[in-house]
Amino acid sequence: MSWEFFLVTLITIGVAFGGLMGTIAYLILVERRLAAFIQDRYGPNRVGWAGLLQPIADGAKFLLKEDVIPGYVNKTLYILGPSIAVFTAMAGFAIVPFGPVDQAPSWMRFVIAPDVNIGMIYIFCVGSLGVYGVILGGWASNNKYSSLGSMRASAQVVSYEIPLGMSIIGVVLMTSSLSLNDILMHQANQGVLGWNVWTQPLALLIFFVSALAETNRLPFDLSECEQELVGGFHTEYSSMKFALYFLGEYAHIITVCFLTAILFFGGWQFPLIAEADSAYLGATLVKVVVLLTKVLMIILLIMFIRWTIPRFRFDQLMNLAWLGLIPMAAMNILVVMTAKQFDWPIWTLPLGSLAIFVAAGLIGTSGKFVVSDQTVDFSESPEGYVHVHS
């Protein structure tokens, strides 16, 4: 490794880390203002003009607040939990391109770790480790609400890792690569009609729903729901340790939004102004702005969902993963593999997605699904169980 490569890597890490921290601080402000708008009330608007200095005040409050560690916790694991949560969220961002990688200036790159040809596998591996921070924090708190929250988080993450991983297999098959930059360039070279959202709409839906569950966002925040578990796994946390969990959650959301934009919406590609062969003065900056705009739109969508859709019950959460998303993801893979094998036209893929979605809806609304001599009854008992009859 040359000194130049090392120096450029350090600068890129600094830019990415500083950008993430600043973005997270102001995303919290945006979400609070958005929640206030939806609930017809004033949001934070007193610190600075229109409340723009509120994130700085919040950060200072976290730093200056008394660092309380309850006497009945396992101190080592109690402190280690939030550290793991924020570290894994940050590490996942290392291979995410935040601009046109091939057109980066000489003094920095638009991705921290370039040329990682197993990028998708790396992200799923590192991202799935984040749940250990939640489990350790919940268990080490020595509190029944924290323990219940951490157990819910582990079951939720394990369940939704499956459809999340299966949803992108179709994209990988179409691109023949696990590299995020290759997937982005595959779409950019074909123009706007080459975006995977047109050929893989069902995969996008499964990926987005699973990602919401992975990040513990409403309507899937069962591991920290206030009405049932006080605060869930972070009930005993305060000051900077609580802030680290918050940082980890928002960093995870930003990573997921970058992935959604890159995997399904062409990344930085946009008709006329940001094409693959655009080389006019300022084209690189335009491409970065286009990508960040797409990411911001997806973040705002996630925020709207949080403040509009009510929380699922835990049995509904599990049923959605195991009886809905996983079968649909498996069928979607089958359709893509068949289309690739027999060279079917590209328009057959969205038709296949639509057929799978409609079939799943009919099965779900009819309440029953018959396989051989067994009937799976989706109509819920008072306990929320799904019954299987022979």
From TrEMBL:
Organism of origin: Planctopirus limnophila (strain ATCC 43296 / DSM 3776 / IFAM 1008 / Mu 290)
Gene of this entry: nuoH
This protein's name: NADH-quinone oxidoreductase subunit H
One Pfam short name: NADHdh
Subunit structure: NDH-1 is composed of 14 different subunits. Subunits NuoA, H, J, K, L, M, N constitute the membrane sector of the complex.
Superkingdom of the organism of origin: Bacteria
GO CC annotations on file: plasma membrane
Coiled coil feature spans: none
Keywords per UniProt: Cell inner membrane, Cell membrane, Membrane, NAD, Quinone, Translocase, Transmembrane, Transmembrane helix, Ubiquinone
UniProt family annotation: Belongs to the complex I subunit 1 family.
GO molecular function, one term: oxidoreductase activity, acting on NAD(P)H, quinone or similar compound as acceptor
Topology in the lipid bilayer: Multi-pass membrane protein
Enzyme Commission number: 7.1.1.-
Residue stretches spanning the membrane: 6-29, 77-99, 119-141, 162-180, 192-213, 242-268, 280-305, 317-338, 344-364
BP GO terms, sorted: aerobic respiration
Function: NDH-1 shuttles electrons from NADH, via FMN and iron-sulfur (Fe-S) centers, to quinones in the respiratory chain. The immediate electron acceptor for the enzyme in this species is believed to be ubiquinone. Couples the redox reaction to proton translocation (for every two electrons transferred, four hydrogen ions are translocated across the cytoplasmic membrane), and thus conserves the redox energy in a proton gradient. This subunit may bind ubiquinone.
Localization per record: Cell inner membrane; Cell membrane; Membrane
Catalytic activities: a quinone + NADH + 5 H(+)(in) = a quinol + NAD(+) + 4 H(+)(out)
